[in-house]
Fold these 4 entries.
Entry 1:
Amino acid sequence: MAPRITDATTKAGIVIVGYIAVFMLGLTSALLVGGVGGTIASVALALAVVLFCARTFRAPGEPIAPPRPWWKLTGGRTSGLVVGGLCVLQVVGQLASARVSDGAGWSLPAALLSAVLAAAFVHSALRQPARRASPDA
């Protein structure tokens, strides 16, 4: 069975370390390899981090043992919409930076990945039922 991560602090740590690793790999490979090679490496690592998190993170009350359905990327509708919205903001930032920088072509693959991830997270959120307030609250 694949590991399941349920602790919020551990999840946050993994996301932060993954984000830093993608940034550092992109920066290092852009300096060493330059251009397309660095972009491909960064995009591939970013996709790997997102897939790892989507497959191993579990929300409170979500079953731990069975694997998630292929389309389910988060534990609930709200988290899927929030992450999807953050991906949309990432697209906007990447396209804006591509427009003002000389290396405009290198931001486009990252923007495309962010757009695909935004669509996937929103799709995942909309397929999940909305959580109802507990009658005890």
Note: Residues 8-32 form the longest helix (25 residues).
Entry 2:
Amino acid sequence: MKSRKLWCIAVLVPSFLASEAQGTDYLFHVSCQNTNLVVEWKTGDINPGRELLRVSTSTKYPNCTVSDYNQARDRNLPRETYEHVAGVIAGITLIGTIICHFFGCG
């Protein structure tokens, strides 16, 4: 009986860890007239794609420039982070607001 439990743990734990590791993080540098910041998307189990998240970031900051993250330039900038399903949905402008209003995101 003990060996079965150990075998199950040995098989199941790596699969859970692997599924969490499949999430992708996207970082964008946002340059506005008054401020610079980094917007970080931690997608977790969902991944709407880099370009959708770039467009969503640009929509949240309409008068700013959005570019790829550069560690040398951006590592000390403040970060705005959206994490996993609820965070990513909440971070997507307009449609995220509507979805969170009706279904909640927290």
Note: Helices lie at 2-21, 50-60, 71-74, 84-91, 95-103.
Entry 3:
Amino acid sequence: MRRFVLGVMALVAAGMPMAASARWADWPPGPTDAELEQVVRVAYTAAAAHARGNTNYFARDGVFDPLRSAVEDELGRQGLTFVNVVGEPAASLDVARLCAAEGTELRIGVNLFGDGIDLAVATDERVFSYHYEPRENAAVVVAPAAPCERG
């Protein structure tokens, strides 16, 4: 134990970073399944708050940027700034669930009427998503983390 403590002290004295101070997203294999779920939960909470202030619409008449900004702002407030929120709406849930080329991407899709939403966070290996379509189901459909498909 003494050798370990001395070794750690030597690393600190040398100015080398310690693993405990690094963000989890910096370490392979990337975010855990629980962390992917956290990103989607935060995004959905922000999207729902945005909809409440927008006559219960996530996006209306093709206006997507306020929704995207609300989600991105809340991710920032929660310290999830490493997540890249894609700038254009996803064409479908299947497209949103494709693997990310690099990093961690959050894709947002809205239905034709603007009252339904898809949220998917993907890495180059895993994906987690929420799907809410009020004409299909009154509940949010959660797809637990799973391997993603390459596009």
Note: Residues 2 and 126 are 40 Å apart (CA to CA).
Entry 4:
Amino acid sequence: MDSRDLSDNEILDIVKPLAEHTENAWNEKNYNEFIRYFYEESPSDTFPEEDFKRQIEENYDIYGKHTIADLVAIHRNPDHVIVLWKVELEKRKEPGLLIYGFKERAGQVLIEGCAYHA
């Protein structure tokens, strides 16, 4: 993804819907939708459904639903971008940090990786 000539708003217009879809899939505990826009051709090989279910079990009752909040930063690399947002957590007053990497494959921008820190 060549982001050099794109404004922050143009980047967000491209990537935020992907992140929101993925966070909604987490909230719905829907593995297939969670990995739908992952960059890897076979995301279930590197992030199997068992890992997803384990993370849901370990974290969902503690933090509840995730909602993307304020933009923290956009970091541009030559072939991908990393976007950091605050994430509102349903069961915790303090926000967490949501980190997404996005990369282009065959003309489509996809999620290279995602993580949250609470």
Note: The chain has a mean pLDDT of 94.
